[in-house]
Design brief:
OB fold (Dihydrolipoamide Acetyltransferase, E2P), globular, 138 residues, mainly beta
């Protein structure tokens, strides 16, 4: 038996989307952007965003749908799931022609880091590049 855990802190790129499986289980999809900023070897400031597709199940899915919104900051603990066909992250082409990747995570725990009324106001998206709906890869 093998086991791994991934921990992500980021902001929702759009509002949660909840649905129910045929047997009545709630599942909510979250699109989470995790931002990183650093200085490269040439002294230039670089901002990098990694996207995660997060599936949240059961009561936790219902809570995420009820209390989170676009811009909300969250901490996700879960399991990284590779693309079933390739075993790799899902790749896509951005509007500017560059290649990006997104990663699928099955959440075991979701912590809300923003207040409900604050959305992304508690240190949210301003740390990374400005995001528009067309920038979200999925």
């Amino acid at each position: 038996m093998s086991f791994h855990t991934i921990i992500i802190v980021g902001n929702l790129g759009r509002d949660p989307e909840m649905r129910y499986t045929p047997n009545g289980n709630a599942v909510t999809s979250l699109n989470v952007a995790s931002n990183r900023a650093y200085t490269d070897t040439n002294g230039q400031r670089v901002k990098e965003t990694t996207w995660f597709r997060v599936s949240v199940w059961g009561k936790m899915a219902e809570n995420a749908n009820n209390y989170l919104q676009k811009g909300s900051m969250v901490l996700i603990e879960g399991e990284l799931r590779p693309d079933r066909e390739t075993g790799n992250p899902r790749t896509f082409t951005r509007n500017d022609g560059t290649t990006g990747a997104s990663y699928e995570v099955f959440a075991r725990n979701v912590r809300f880091l923003s207040s409900r009324s604050g959305g992304g106001q508690d240190g949210g998206l301003e740390d990374g590049p400005e995001m528009k709906d067309e920038d979200i890869p999925f």
